[in-house]
Amino acid sequence: MKTKKITAILSLLFLNCLGTPPLGLDPNNVVPSQTLINYQQMELIGFIHFTVNTFTDKEWGYGDESPEIFNPSEMDVEQWAKTAKAVGMKQLILTAKHHDGFCLWPSQYTEHSVKNSPYKNGKGDVVGEFVAACRKYGLKAGLYLSPWDRNHKDYGTLAYITYYKNQLEELLTNYGQINEIWFDGANGGDGYYGGANEIRKIDRDTYYSWKDIVTFVKNLQPNIKIFSDAGPDVHWIGNEKGFAGFTFWSTINPKNLTIGASKTDYLNTGDPEGTRWIVGQCDVSIRPGWFYHANEDSLVKTPQQLADIYYKSVGRNALLLLNLPPDKRGLIHENDVKALTNFKSIIDESLESDLAKGQKASANNYRLNYSKFDPKNTIDGDPDTFWATDDNIFPASLEIELSEGRTFDRVLVQEPIKLGQRVSEFEIDVMGDVNWNTIFKGTTIGYKRILRIPSVNTKKIRLRIIKANNTVAISNVELYKSSTREVSQ
Ligand code: FUL
After folding, report:
1. Which residues, other chains included, contact 409 with Cβ-Cβ below 8 Å and sequence gap of 6+?
2. What is the pLDDT of residue 17?
3. 136 pairs with which residues across the strands?
4. CA 71/CA 74 separation, integer angstroms
5. By the 8 A CB rule, do 343 and 328 touch?
6. How many helices (H) and strands (E) does the chain have?
7. What is the pLDDT of residue 329?
8. Which residue, by CA, sits nearest to atom 7 of ligand 1?
């Protein structure tokens, strides 16, 4: 023990002499910006799909709809924000324009918009009302502007790109701060196109000049997060079921990505060799369709299904973007609200009381034996403090001893991602009568990993990190007993 202390003091002096920050731990080469860390911390966000499709009962409008049909009877944008807030969402993203080209704001560049609808006698601006409601309820606002436009006569030519940029400029200058812009990958095909009624194909790699559009957007809103299946800030998870891969890296290689044509498997797992930090986002609708259809009122996902999706997205180091499509009244339907309320109670009950907090934590090693890296930091409830080992300690083993035997079936683990994502293989053991039993074998952790394990009663649990791409650092370990209303997976 004495020698350990002396070594620690000598190392401290040595580091200080070198001028290295005392007791530092070097970050990985690829780390997220603070803006992306803040973004990831939102965890749960919502999507609002609402347009002419809501009134025509379609998923993809052809682009020939009359604006006259856009006529919500009890429109209440604040109900969307209140519903999102109540379930714990931190942001909403609205389809300002879907593939049909109909604009929910009175764009000066087209007649295909709310300004020619009966809604508020053409004086309405759903984007403006939406942004105001988000602000009022403390939510960030995001906008979806479909690159594909089945209404516009120039779609497929350069003139349309100018139109698209003009629309981006309207949206990103007239409504204050927009936290996210969503570029969908669906592109080109048949449409109205100003009456041409034909098929138009575009070259996904070159048509939009995405690089220019990204620069254009960032010039208008430097803090905005750009979503697409190629990032550059947030990327699609590769499916519309809301599931990130069992292994999921927040790092990825942009060279392997093309907006509208990235490989879905690659998006679903990320890339341990990735050269850029791009946050993963899992989009899924609470109903089978993205838009409201009365015949899907009985097909709203159950609270248990939503909880499963939550564990496979937020619980796998990604964000969950859950779609809540308003109906013809302009309201999120009662069935959806009910499912959301119950989903929230289930998650709250399941992750309510952390059995590890304030118990005893020890490790086979901690960096320089210095308190900044003490294993206790994993159970202090503070996500900014962490346990770290000396270099090249594998397995790194963290043990939590509970004051009495406790039953739990959820283990939440976090890495301090400001240092990068490191862990690629870990195991969870619990102490049986005499021996440790391995109850879970995992791969990645990242910002947050929530493991669903068979219910176990024990006094001791151990997290063993077997492989990582750098020195092990873990910020948080929490233990929970799930709600009886949750179906264990
Ligand atoms: C897809 C679109 O085609 C759907 O209509 C929906 O907007 C979904 C979120 O993205 O690619």
Report:
1. 452, 453, 454, 455, 456, 480, 481, 482, 488
2. 44
3. none
4. 9
5. no
6. 10, 20
7. 98
8. 290
- Stretches in the chain below the pLDDT threshold 50: 1, 15-22, 489
Q: How far is the CA of 186 from the centre of ligand 1 (A)?
A: 7
268: three-class secondary structure by DSSP: helix
Q: What is the pLDDT of residues 357-367, one digit of tens each?
A: 999 999 999 99
Extract the tokens encoding 39.
């973004």
pLDDT digits (tens, 9 = 90+) for 207-219: 999 999 999 999 9
Residue 7 has a pLDDT of 55
Angle formed at CA 415 by CA 409 and CA 420, multiple of 5 degrees:
150
Could you tell me if 143 and 178 are in contact, meaning their C-beta atoms sit under 8 angstroms apart?
A: yes
CA distance 408 to 355: 8
pLDDT of residue 11: 54
Q: How many whole angstroms from its chain centre is CA 130?
A: 21
Domains of the chain: 8-19+353-480 (2.60.120.260), 34-350 (3.20.20.80)
Strands of 384-422, DSSP E: 387-388, 396-414
CA 449 to ligand 1 center in whole angstroms? 27
CA-nearest residue, atom 3 of ligand 1? 186
The sign one gets for the Cα dihedral 38, 397, 440, 250 is: positive
406 CA to middle of ligand 1, Å?
45
CA-proximal residue: ligand 1, atom 2 (nearest): 186
Whose C-alpha lies nearest to ligand 1, atom 11? Answer: 186
Residue that the structure tokens 């098929």 belong to: 199
35 and 26 Cβ atoms separated by less than 8 Å: no
